[in-house]
DNA sequence: CACGGGTTTCCTGATT
DNA sequence: AAATCAGGAAACCCGT
């Protein structure tokens, strides 16, 4: 028996933001696990990725994790036994997938991601002059990202991998991936830029882009909280990424090359096997599976003050496959 | 107060 | 043998 009840009472913090659905204490178990996996600093060998791109991980110190979970829930009697029961309940909801035969090993499932509500919120974006701010999630933990800009009219594409680590500004187009002199400008100077002003904020800024330009942003990482709109001034400051580019050079950009002629803005384009459809706006949170692909575009006529934006969840997985090897290489 | 989601507890019965 | 895995049941917590 044991009515261990007792120390249950005040639920202190209640920031302000309308706590989403049911989310006691702000975090669900699977999110808690995810966060540990994402924060090497806070993960003293507690849980380890078995196959990050597949979302497979293993508990190294099951009881320690349980204690940590219990601490978060103000429950000192938490044990792995109990925590694991909760984990098993995730199978049915497909937040976790069963990994049999392997003790202490779990795998994130397809529902270990965002939901429709977040998606809708994500649709909001701001367009200011020629600055295009894409809504992203705060506290996004992007480790690496790949940018590919596509000039539909010229059927060219350029882009390449970069790494993000805290506050850094990165030019998108490095010399290594300039494929066509007439496509989007070179990275350093007036070209598109991905600017990370705060560790917890990611702002995508395009400036001096040409007409009929679309870009693809692949973010490898986990999104740890709700999307938040951000707005920033354009700051042009060439970041020296040459070294980084060379270091991270991968076949990604080549894969992303547009193969199929397509000059119609509204038509789908196919970039190296990735289908960019016109489906409903959607930016997915790919927890346990490393990344989200954002596709955005800009109106031909800037005076319209309207951006042509499309988000396609389908891009996620094909892109995931595409970048699978890159991610592994980068993750070491 | 009722109700539902998300655990938390407990437990019996396998597996490793 | 100890640690886990599997789930069913039911109690809890908490937000609506």
TrEMBL record:
Q: What residues does the ETS domain cover? A: 27-109
Q: Where is the composition biased (Basic and acidic residues)?
A: 1-15
- Protein localization: Nucleus
Renumbered residue ranges of the record's region Disordered: 1-24
A Gene Ontology biological process noted in the UniProt record is:
cell differentiation
Gene Ontology cellular component terms for the protein in this record: nucleus
Protein's UniProt keywords contain RNA-binding: no
Listed A to Z, the keywords are: DNA-binding, Nucleus, Transcription, Transcription regulation
Enumerate the transmembrane spans.
none
Under the heading InterPro entries, the entry gives: Ets_dom, ETS_fam, WH-like_DNA-bd_sf, WH_DNA-bd_sf
Report whether Transcription regulation shows up as a keyword of the record.
Answer: yes
The positions making up the signal sequence are: none
Molecular function per GO: DNA-binding transcription activator activity, RNA polymerase II-specific; sequence-specific double-stranded DNA binding
The family line of this record is: Belongs to the ETS family.
Descriptive protein name: ETS domain-containing protein
Species: Lamprotornis superbus
Lineage of the organism: Eukaryota, Metazoa, Chordata, Craniata, Vertebrata
């Amino acid at each position: 028996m044991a009515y261990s009840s007792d120390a249950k009472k005040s639920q202190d913090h209640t920031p302000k933001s309308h706590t989403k659905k049911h989310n006691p204490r702000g975090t669900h178990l699977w999110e808690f696990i995810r966060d540990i996996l994402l924060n090497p600093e806070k993960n003293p060998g507690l849980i380890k990725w078995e196959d990050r791109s597949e979302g497979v991980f293993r508990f190294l110190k099951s009881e320690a994790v349980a204690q940590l979970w219990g601490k978060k829930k103000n429950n000192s009697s938490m044990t792995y036994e109990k925590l694991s029961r909760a984990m098993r309940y995730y199978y049915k909801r497909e937040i976790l997938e069963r990994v049999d035969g392997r003790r202490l090993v779990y795998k994130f499932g397809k529902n270990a991601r965002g939901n429709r509500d977040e998606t809708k919120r994500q649709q909001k974006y701001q367009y200011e002059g020629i600055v295009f701010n894409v809504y992203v999630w705060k506290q996004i933990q992007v480790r690496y990202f790949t940018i590919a800009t596509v000039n539909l009219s010229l059927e060219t594409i350029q882009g390449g991998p970069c790494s993000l680590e805290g506050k850094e500004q990165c030019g998108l187009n490095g010399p290594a991936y300039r494929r066509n002199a007439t496509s989007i400008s070179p990275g350093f100077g007036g070209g598109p830029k991905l600017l990370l002003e705060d560790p917890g904020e990611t702002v995508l800024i395009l400036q001096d882009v040409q007409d009929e330009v679309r870009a693809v942003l692949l973010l490898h990482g986990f999104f740890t909280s709700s999307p938040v709109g951000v707005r920033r001034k354009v700051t042009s400051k060439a970041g020296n990424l040459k070294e980084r580019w060379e270091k991270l050079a991968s076949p990604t950009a080549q894969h992303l090359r547009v193969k199929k002629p397509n000059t119609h803005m509204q038509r789908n384009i196919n970039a190296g096997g990735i289908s960019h459809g016109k489906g409903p706006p959607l930016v997915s949170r790919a927890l346990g599976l490393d990344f989200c692909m954002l596709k955005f575009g800009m109106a031909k006529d800037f005076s319209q003050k309207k951006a042509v934006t499309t988000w396609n969840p389908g891009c996620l997985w094909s892109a995931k496959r595409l970048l699978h090897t890159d991610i592994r290489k980068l993750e070491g």
